[in-house]
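Attaching the record inline, Q. Sequence:
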Amino acid sequence: MQARCEDEAQRFSFEAFTRHPFFTEVNRWIVERVICPGRRKIVDLGCGPGAVTKLIVERLGEDADNAEVIGIDPSQSALAKARAAIQSQWVRFVEGSAEWVSRLVSSADAVVFLNAIHLVPDKAQVMGEIRKALKPGGVFAFNTTFFNGAYVEGTSAFWRRWIVRAVQVLRERGLDVKHSAHAVAREFLTADQYADLCVQAGFARPSVEFVRIEMTPESLEDIGHFSLFIEGALPGVPLEQGADALHEGLRRAREETGVANVPRNWLECVAVAK
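Structure, as predicted:
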């Protein structure tokens, strides 16, 4: 059973989406603003296979000799990939969870938590843990495109049409689904709600920016194969059937609208520990 669950998690993971160039761009946006001289102990929380860790090491450059970079992730397989990809005496990878990060590290200068905070059930608890892991004046930075506000003005009709067409596909195949046109957005926090949680956890109110990227047809297909997107768009539908329906629904929506690339916002937040 566990092996089956791990296989499903891999098949419907975020990994394919991370291979698109804009994904590196939105992560580099954070890294360039957070990694600087004087910040020596840096935590890459939810590091996965090490893509962001690599950006951090590149950003440190010659300063890496005086730094300590700690990648933390709950997945042993992801950590194995990270260790194979980044072999440096200044970098170490640790198995662990965001829910108890303060047990793994303390007095950090910076914690980056990129493209993962939307997966956390109790965001207030995790932000409190991150605050404990930081020294006063330390920096917590996170980003996500799964938030209420990700849709660029004028594009919501396309996203709604995509979901409506996917529901249509499911019904054609004999699957009844309770559909809400707002299902995807309903599950996500706004930028202000994230900022409020930071303040409650002991941070100064964060700086908040929206970075707009262009999603290509290929990246739309990949996001439609991601479990979180499937579950938000088509609640209660098995992942396999949901992914297939979203694939066909996307084809129909693009054919009807003539839309190719679709802009989308990334939320980028940087907060300083009091």
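The beta strands are 41-45, 68-73, 91-95, 108-114, 134-144, 207-215, 262-272. The longest helix spans residues 239-257.

More tomorrow.
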